[in-house]
Design brief:
extended; about 80 residues; about 20% strand; 2 helices; alpha+beta
Length: about 80
């Protein structure tokens, strides 16, 4: 294994509207479709449960944290 060092060259915060309207909202239909495609599949149910829990936690704590993306460059 080689050691890779990266330095951040940019960061950006994804605005709340992007998560609410462009990520979480479209996920609802996709989650329902996925559950219908694999009825009774415990792995699928667990996945959807955790995705929905992420949304609940985001809505509850969004004033205190957010999602940040980092762009790095190898050195």
């Amino acid at each position: 294994m080689t050691n890779r060092l990266e330095i951040p060259v940019a960061t950006f915060v994804i605005p709340e509207i992007c998560w609410a309207e462009h990520y979480f909202a479209p996920c609802h239909k996709a989650q329902e479709d996925f559950l219908k495609k694999y009825p009774g599949n415990e792995t699928v149910e667990d996945l959807i449960y955790n995705q929905r829990r992420e949304e609940v936690l985001y809505n509850k704590y969004k004033a205190f944290y957010g999602y940040v993306f980092y762009i790095g460059r190898k050195i």
